[in-house]
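=== Structure Prediction Worksheet ===
Name of assembly: unnamed complex
Input type: mixed (protein and possibly other molecules)
Chain count: two
Listed entries:
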Amino acid sequence: MVNIRQLSTADAGFEQSLADLLAVESAQDDEVTQVVHQILDNIKSRGDSALMEYTRQFDRLELTRIDQIEISPEQVQTALQAIDSEALAALEFAATRIRQYHEKQVAISWQHTEADGTMLGQKITPLARVGLYVPGGKAAYPSSVLMNAIPAKVAGVKELVMVTPTPGGYCNPLVLAAAAISEVDRIFTIGGAQAIGALAYGTTTIPRVDKIVGPGNAYVAAAKRQVFGTVGIDMIAGPSEILVICDGQTDPDWIAMDLFSQAEHDEQAQSILLCPDATFLERVAASIANLIETMPRHEVIRTSLQNRGALIHVRDLQEACTIANQIAPEHLELSVENPEQWIASIEHAGAIFLGRHTCEALGDYCAGPNHVLPTSGTARFSSPLGVYDFQKRTSLIQVSSEGAAQLGRIAATLARGEGLEAHARSASYRYEQ
Amino acid sequence: MVNIRQLSTADAGFEQSLADLLAVESAQDDEVTQVVHQILDNIKSRGDSALMEYTRQFDRLELTRIDQIEISPEQVQTALQAIDSEALAALEFAATRIRQYHEKQVAISWQHTEADGTMLGQKITPLARVGLYVPGGKAAYPSSVLMNAIPAKVAGVKELVMVTPTPGGYCNPLVLAAAAISEVDRIFTIGGAQAIGALAYGTTTIPRVDKIVGPGNAYVAAAKRQVFGTVGIDMIAGPSEILVICDGQTDPDWIAMDLFSQAEHDEQAQSILLCPDATFLERVAASIANLIETMPRHEVIRTSLQNRGALIHVRDLQEACTIANQIAPEHLELSVENPEQWIASIEHAGAIFLGRHTCEALGDYCAGPNHVLPTSGTARFSSPLGVYDFQKRTSLIQVSSEGAAQLGRIAATLARGEGLEAHARSASYRYEQ
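=== Predicted Assembly ===
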């Protein structure tokens, strides 16, 4: 049995039930914040020696020389040769599709010249050096390496520096293979807040980067938050979630498994199904009960579904879309007939998976779009990780002497209105002489 | 006399001198952080009543009803009619140019269908509701309203909510005029951390927004940092800076005034000149000495130039570009012959002002590009404020049954490699049946 919450939009108090369901404990732990603050300070002031101490302590690594934290290209090649050929082919296939999709996101510089010779434009430049955090141990996901590294390389980032903790010296060879396939430039076996500090401030061994991306635990997240501004960071991810909208015509086992696929990540993951067909919701509940024991991670799935999952009866698919917009889900499956008709109704979602054959797992690995998506309703204001996260813009302004005569007068008027006389004078010099 | 620092790249220790010059005290004040944390907590838990208390306390406003904090459209119209017609015309002219430039930044949704019927795409949606913070009192800049509001409206943001403190009840009519011209939807006379909290969490009176942009003091900056994640925020700005590269052929008075125009903002602002002609540097120093007493804000300018300014002798213009890339300046003037030849050499800058007639002030007000630019070297990884800050992306994935047969196998292989059996099963259902 799985006691998954069953709700209906017709229930009195549905709005509150939904709000409670979506609430995430996002409070930052003060103790974590303090510990991280101290680690960052130490890395900033003592560099490599602090980095070695923390790595010995937290990752139980017997380091005698600092250069032992770098994985050599030879070690990467050894890992590549050791892994299963089917796995390697699958990684390469996925990498190709991810690359092809992201190539469509590349922004191009432009310039426009006006009649009087004034030119305005926007110059696009890749970030020079980027740090990629990859969690170690069991949660080391090669797919995550591809999804973070490939957009950076498509953007033109020259130096992509990966860090990954190797507790007790273990490093997942698939992670190294994914790094090789996605052209990561350097790999260091460091992790935690100390790795984030090393990337943000630079040490003798670790080059200072311009931006840090990639998932991590609470310490890594707190460290990223604290170095934000010194370097760029991607979003700080909350628990992963899926919202499935189904018209009741998909195989209920498929839908149950899609809900499982999110729930198996961790106990905080969230799986919600919206359907206008009450009978179908019962069938999915039966599939869940029927299938859960066959899953290796059934304990995690059960806890996640019971704590944070829900099967919700809606009036119709239009209402389902309204609720989807309230939730602004990370992943939205439209497992319905003619799914494309609903695209216009969805304003907020990280990714939309259209049609019965498009389960989230295809997008997680190999469809092409990024699997790093805004969680916890942040799709209201943020986007999937993309090439645009690794490119930046510079405004170009070249005012002709004729243009300066016109723009200078306007600027001088506005500057004087703001009490900024040097601005006004700087502008008026350009047309008075 | 102005004791502005004179350096040369030929000096021993130049690198360290430059690093010292650029160092910004960016440490977050722990006391400010704590005070702001408490204000945000109070706004979150007590909403409007806390908001009224803080506004009475900090802005000395005699509020008896909460709806007194909203400025009515009639009040805005009254302000519009009261202001000088030349100032109004200048604001409208600037708004038109800003709008035209930003319209070139609008991103467009796309979809691409593959041979087997699989469709991938990217849907662009504007943010639904955005908060715009506008500082009150003397630093209330109408140009800043235009620069923040217009890109949001060009992006298609439906509801743009402006907040601005009105200490003692004073509100700059030019700020209201700028809000009207740039189609701000609602205006509230609140400020400080309490205004940021109200926008981030929503109160009965203040609608919850999806993103908050705009400059503010240390409390506002700390509040934005703390609500980041609950809502989106723009960059947290440091002191403003200008780097001028001159070949020695521009009128030294022009260059001196360009340096003043940055220095007059505040004592922390930074103005640096790079030039290969030592004689010209002397002439600029003479212009500075000669002109400073004519400036209303000469005390601020003097302090800023003495504390943070520099005239730097370089070997040649190529070296000047190298230094510019190290600095990654907010504003870069290329006051040289054929400035366009150097565009390719500049990798990191917020905006480049090309040619002797293009002083920064033209870009600050009316050239068209945004004046909200990355400060303190953050141009290494961030961009001018733009339409892209008010649009977000949603990935679209529609896999055909044929596509699922191929992608499903790859996904299942990769998922099993990561120990995620529900992902694998969810994918394999799509091709096994």
